Amino acid sequence: MNANPLAMLSKASLAIAVLAAIGFNPSLQAANPQQVEQLLKTGECQGCDLSGANLSGQHLLGADLRNANLKGANLIQTNLEGADLTGANLEGANLTASFATNATMTLANLDRANLSQAQLYDTDVQGASMVALILDNTNIFNTGIGIGGGEETP
Questions:
Q1: How large is the C-alpha radius of gyration of the chain?
Q2: Which segment of the chain is annotated as a signal peptide (predicted)?
Q3: pLDDT at 144
């Protein structure tokens, strides 16, 4: 069997490039596993690094996530009822079909967060940053998020 050394080198280079992109990318592996476990066990993780964490489908009712880093986290179908996300970084997080009734997101970073099909009832978003927030088919009630062009008052 004659193996082409150039082809082998190309495959090795590709493998190294893939590992470098996936295996060593801090944004993909930034969540602190101990802090994820702490959140799931206690419901408290104030100031934790949960960036990129997969919390899809979790029941985080009343969770204390003040100032937590949830940048790029997967929160699809997560129940955040009554959760305190004051000052949390949810930039680019996926909250599709999540439930955030009575949640507090005061001063949170919701830039580029996906809240499609989410339920936001009585959610406090005062002072939150919402640049390029995705709200496709989102149910919003008694929450400080305006959709469309409302009337301006002089």
A1: 20
A2: 1-30
A3: 84
The answer to whether 78 and 97 have CB atoms below 8 angstroms apart is: no
Give the SS3 label for residue 138: coil
Q: Is the pLDDT of residue 135 over 60?
A: yes
CATH 3.40.190.10 applies to domain 51-143: no
- The helix (H) or strand (E) run that includes residue 98 is none
- Number of other CB atoms surrounding residue 124 within 10 Å: 19
The confidence score (pLDDT) of residue 63 equals: 99
Residue 106 has pLDDT above 90, yes or no: yes
Distance CA 147, CA 3 (A): 61
Q: Is 1 exposed, middle or buried (0-12, 13-18, 19+ CB in 10 A)?
A: exposed
Give residue 21's pLDDT band: very low, low, confident or very high (50, 70, 90): very low
pTM summary value: 0.77
